[in-house]
Design brief:
It contains 8 helices and no strands. The chain has helices spanning about 1-10, 20-30, 35-45, 55-80, 105-120, 125-145, 150-190, 190-195. It is an enzyme of class 3 (hydrolase).
Length: about 200
């Protein structure tokens, strides 16, 4: 498995001959495209057609729970199975600054794949498919720039699946109660913009 990991890394990783425009694009994808996660979460909670607001907020909360589970699992796996990053082994080429911490599974991969899977399962398949393409792009860029192994990203995808599974099970026990509590807290804290019609009730 480690040999396959290294072979795939060398196949994807950029080299000194890689065009500058591709390195610039990969850097943007690797560092900034993940911002779509908080932006979509905020937008789905605050705005949308009145008849869909409740279902959108349920999606936001279920996705948030899945992310918490996934990142907790990711932390446990990283502690139990520490794996050095490629550049700490002087393997391949590095084009993105990164702390020399352990790489498996990727936090970026875990976050975006959990988010994408949540939309596939609980929103619409087309929206989940778009987010999955974004997830694959982020995974590619971080391997291309030399800060992750391909298996770090596969690990992030698998952990995302577990996070969504645990969230679905947990929702049956406390999801609706939590949604009601958070909705009431939101209406209290955002009473002014709600009255002004800037955001949904």
């Amino acid at each position: 498995m480690e040999e396959l990991n290294r072979t795939l890394f060398l196949w994807i990783n950029a080299t000194a001959e890689s065009p500058q425009w591709l390195l610039t694009l990969a850097t943007f994808i690797a560092k900034d495209l993940i911002a779509i996660v908080p932006l979509l979460i905020v937008a789905l909670w605050l705005w949308g057609p009145r008849h869909r607001v409740t279902s959108q907020r349920e999606l936001v909360l279920k996705t948030g729970i899945a992310l918490i589970y996934a990142l907790a699992i990711s932390w446990c796996l990283g502690s139990l199975f520490p794996h050095p990053r490629p550049f700490t082994l002087n393997f391949g080429h590095q084009f993105l600054e990164h702390a020399p911490d352990y790489s498996y599974p990727s936090d970026h991969g875990t976050t975006i794949f959990t988010f994408a899977l949540a939309f596939v399962l609980w929103h619409r398949r087309w929206s989940g498919a778009i987010l999955m393409v974004i997830g694959v792009s982020i995974a590619w860029s971080r391997v291309f720039l030399g800060v992750h192994w391909p298996m770090d990203m596969v690990g992030g995808l698998l952990v995302g699946m577990l996070g969504c599974l645990f969230s679905q099970v947990a929702w049956q026990f406390y999801g609706t109660r939590m949604l009601n509590v958070l909705s009431q807290l939101y209406r209290t804290l955002f009473s002014f913009p709600i009255r002004k019609g800037w955001v949904r009730d």
